[in-house]
Amino acid sequence: MLLLNVCRANAYGTNQMEHRVVVVTGAGGAIGRGIALALARAGASVVVNDVGVSLAGEGGDGSVAERLAQEIKAAGGIATANSDSVSNWDSAQKIIACALDTYGRIDAVVNNAGNLLDRFFHNMTEEEWRCVIDVHLHGTFFVSRAAATHFRAQNNGAYVHMTSTSGLIGNFGQANYSAAKLGIVGLSKSIALDMRKYGVRSNCIAPFAWSRMTDSIPANTPEELQRIEKLKKMDAGKIAPMAVYLASVAASAVTGQIFGVRANEIILFSQPRPIRSVHMSDGWTPELIAEVAIPAMQTNFYELERSPDVVSWDPI
Description:
There is one protein chain. By secondary structure, the chain is of the alpha/beta class. The protein has a single domain (21-268), classed as 3-Layer(aba) Sandwich (Rossmann fold), CATH 3.40.50.720. Helix content is 41%, strand content 13%. The chain has helices at 30-41, 63-74, 89-103, 126-154, 165-168, 175-195, 222-232, 240-247, 286-297, 307-310, and strands spanning 21-24, 45-49, 78-82, 108-111, 157-162, 200-208, 258-262, 265-268. An eight-stranded mixed beta sheet has the order 3-2-1-4-5-6-7-8, sandwiched between helices. Helix 1 (30-41) links the parallel strand 1 (21-24) and strand 2. Helix 4 packs parallel to helix 6. The chain is globular, with a radius of gyration of 21 Å. Mean pLDDT is 90; it is low at 1-14.
């Protein structure tokens, strides 16, 4: 058990989370668990949300959230359990209502709930596509939207969304997951733009960590096995400090950003911006595009790379 300080002093040197209420979805897994524990240790009252299903969405064990909430309370923190699904509009409303009914307010949402149904694109079924989009992208929207009314009314609030380099860069066999995770980036930026005037912030974290999500990565070659061994060195608990910071008032000037956390590294990711332009005064034809435009831009094309090809250095 991770012990909390019973006087609830902030482990990060300030009292930024004292009296703040945070919802953490998917809190039963390694990353979500670490974030929920860290938030409680930092002084927050935490709604621990998890439906208790497998990565493929099978089963359903409400005691997963309850056990973590009890652990937090036994160690001196404040927490309540919730097992409503993020993937449905009405049940997502209940997650936020749980925070309001229990603590009377909501200050931050950590959208961490996730599932995984990997399949090469040409073999992926409609069900495999919809299931992952429903949890990651729809779930992030539903829970965020449920909190938005309250954030707007109080002129304050913070969203922390989990994205992935599978969406930011690419990976094999994850068209559903990659599309959802890149969609979350666009959603986060839209929230940041639309709600800035209400003092609401929205940021993304791309976590590098060993968890049940990464435990499903196939390892059939020496290179894949080596990658798995690197991932195993990345403690899921290392993601928590960034999530706590982004949920706190200390991050009041930080919004619309994408951060990566990889062991002891914090990475700021770039966002799409124009890098090259070509102009034809009389307009373009397909032939001129082939003859002039593409050769002029081709040196700036991105390679067809995967996440481990780009973030290839050893974790520190």
